Structures are given as structure tokens and as C-alpha cells.
Amino acid sequence: MQRLLVYGCLLLLGLTLSLSFAQVSYVEQNGSKQEDTRGASRFLHYLPEDIPIDVFVSSPDVEGGDVLKQQVVAAFEAWQSAAGDLVRFRLVDSPDEETLRVTWIPFDDGRVGSYQYVYAVQRDGVYRFRTSEIFLDPRHGSEDAFRYALLEVGHALGLLGRSPFEGDAMSADPSGVVSERDVATLRALYDLPSGSVVGGDARPASIDEPSAEPVQTETEQEVVESVSVADASSVDVRVSTSEDDAEERSMGRVNRSSKALELTVDPNQGPGQLIGMRFVNVNLPEGARVTGAYVQFTADQPSSEATSLTIGAEASGDAGIFTSSNLNLSSRERTVASVTWSPEAWSVEGESGVLQRTPDLASVIQEVVSRPDWQSGNALVILIEGSGRRVAASYDGDAAAAPLLHIEYGQ
């Protein structure tokens, strides 16, 4: 069992080292501003009311700039997919003072990326990010843009320091993959109040309190060591691209760009259709015992007619992408296991709660991950058919509200 103690110590003790690469500003609520390093000795992160985080990615003025921008957007999507409901991002066309920005500048010292942030202390003593900015050098290729964007997004979320483990997005040589260690450490950070003093008792200090030196204490060891990769018991994966949710009409035509998922009758398309959702990078280990699972939808519009659905999965240990070819969904081999669902009325647009959550899909997921071709990080497809109508948000309609697969498991 690899505990997160060392990684966590970098999170705790590496803050001062990170200051050589980060610029930290402190802003009191009354608007006065001074350069300060007190943020280097505090745990800082976004608050629930700051989620989703608005993100503005500028376009680099270089050849292939659009590709670089796409790689950065993909890095935000990778963090959101790996972290599940912990963090969500929303791309905006123009920034304001609280937007997380990505700016392209050349570095003279060989760095690929850097970041800076401003944090504010509200009058009730709550610490929150005012704004963050990521800087990337556009002279590097798209692969480096993605890897280092992953690293700097982690920094912007509050993960200062580096992981000593190869294979982590936050390692000294970023892997290009958000690992279970990265996510577990992020969750440990977000379980603490923002503004907690490193070396303190996890309570925000007052504005006038002197900065604490980042010294490792027994309390910190307990906080970090209580989270370990081997003990992780759930995984959350959201549909993360336009091509990963699709509708197959009754005549076999496949639509991968619908603004909503009609479960399953679309009044404009005739009888019930087949819905497919592909969840990629499902970090469920081989041999896992699935104890619970569901898909969480978000209501795109109210709907209340009687609805009866059958939910299964593609019988594949690594489901392929959806294509626009006719019958691309219905031609896939299905699991023997399936679950029926008669959802209650969805009365509130934008609601994402128990009413929009499928019944337990453990038997369906277990059949997939028990296959000999299943490996951690593979893709899994859920298929839904039936009668009646519930209208759920799709990736193209609202990426942050796209279907989310939640799996609970044990070894």
C-alpha cells in the first residue's frame, strides 16, 4: 500500500519551494493589496460557491496555436473527469477579475509553465481565491502543452509542490495523466478549510496572525496519511467529449451532437431511441468487487410522463468510440445483466439529485470489469432504451452537467 504521506508532505512542505515558481498576492476585502508570502504557509483552495470555476483560455499567436489551445482545454477536462464532482470548470469567452486565465508567454529560463494567484480574506475570516492565472510557453509542442497544463491546473486548484511518484500529473516530470494519487491528494486538500495554516490545527488564522513556517507536524501526518490510494473506494467519471454521448434513432441514424439526451422518445424523431454514454479512463482495478454504481443525470427540462427504461452496458472490456455510422450503438454486443428504471417525474430544470439518478448498476458494471480484457483506465459504455420520456443534459448542451458514472468498489 503506497500511502500519500510523501506526496502530502510535498503539498505541505513544498509550498515555500513552489514560491520560486509562483507569485502570490494577498488582498484584503477592503481592496488594499500587498505582495505577501503568507499564502505559502496556508492551505488554499476554491470554495463550493466558486464551483464551477470560470476558465478563459487565450489563443497563442503562433503556428498551430489552435492545437495548443485545444490541448489546454483537454487538460481542464481531464482534471474534471478524474476528480468527479469535486471540481468543475466552465469555459468563458471573455474573462473577468475572478476568472482562471491561461496566458501564453515565452520563458527565458527553460520553464514550460508557471502560475500565480491572488487570495482574499473575507471579514468572517474565510480565505478564498480571488483569481488565478496560468502561464505557458507556446514554443513547446502540443504534448508538452497538455502535460504541463495538467500540472499547472493542479497548482491553480491549490496543489502546490510536486509529487515524487512517476505517473502523477503533479510529478517533477508530469505524466500527462491525472492519477488516483493526484485525485486523493486533491480531496485531502479540499477536506480542509481554505486558509488552514500549515503546521496548525486546520483552522483559518486571523488576518493579523503572523505567517507560520511550513513545518511538518504529527497533525499533518495524520491528515495526509488518512488518505491512501489503496483505500480509495469509489471512482467518478463524467462524459468528457461531444462524441461520448449519442442517440441512435429508430431508423438507425446516430446523432453525437444533440443538445440534450432524450430518454428515450424524441417527439421530433418518432419512436424510442437508443442512448449511449461512453466513460473513458475508468480507473477501476482488475479484480475489483463492485459494491454499487449509478449514472447521475441532470434534468434538461421538466418531463413527467410514464417512463420505463432498461439499462445495460456494452459487453467489452474497452468500449470503442461512438461513430456516426448507422446502427453504431445497437450493433454493439450487450451485457447479460441489465437493470430496469421507472424514473419519477423530473419537475425542475437543472436538478441533479436522487430523482435523476439510476438504480444500482453494480451487476452491470461487474460484468464488464470481470471480463479478461478489462484493465484500469479503459472505457465503458452504458446503453439505455425503453419507452416514455425524460430529458437529460448532454455534453454538447452543458458539458459540466453531462452524465456522471459513479462506481463504488472493494478489493
* Total number of beta strands: 21
Q: What is the annotated CATH architecture of the largest domain?
A: 3-Layer(aba) Sandwich
- Domain tally: 2
The CATH topology of the largest domain turns out to be Collagenase (Catalytic Domain)
Q: Largest beta sheet: what is the strand line-up?
A: 2-1-7-8-6-4-5
Provide the structure class.
alpha+beta
Q: Which stretches are poorly predicted, pLDDT < 50 over at least 5 residues?
A: 1-40, 200-232
What is the top-level CATH class of the largest domain? Alpha Beta
Q: How large, in whole angstroms, is the Cα Rg?
A: 22 Å
Residues in helix, %: 10-25%
Quote the beta fraction.
25-35%
* Global mean pLDDT: 77
Query: What is the molecular shape?
Result: globular
CATH superfamily of the largest domain: Collagenase (Catalytic Domain)
What is the number of helices? Answer: 7
Commentary on this structure:
With 411 residues, the protein is α+β, with helices and mostly antiparallel strands. It has two domains: 5-232, Collagenase (Catalytic Domain), CATH 3.40.390; 235-410, Jelly Rolls, CATH 2.60.120. Helix content is 18%, strand content 27%. The strands form five sheets. The chain has a seven-stranded mixed sheet, covered by helices on one side. Helix 3 links the parallel strand 4 (53-57) and strand 5. The model is unreliable at 1-40 and 200-232 (pLDDT under 50).
Helix-strand blueprint:
Layout: H1 5-13, H2 15-18, E1 22-28, E2 33-35, E3 42-43, E4 53-57, H3 65-83, E5 89-91, E6 100-104, E7 113-121, E8 127-136, H4 142-156, H5 180-190, E9 196-197, H6 218-225, E10 234-238, E11 245-248, E12 254-255, E13 260-264, E14 274-282, E15 289-296, E16 299-301, E17 308-313, E18 339-341, H7 362-369, E19 378-387, E20 389-393, E21 404-410
Parallel strand pairs: 1-7, 4-5, 4-6, 6-8
Antiparallel strand pairs: 1-2, 3-9, 7-8, 10-21, 11-12, 11-14, 13-20, 14-19, 15-21, 16-20, 17-18, 17-19
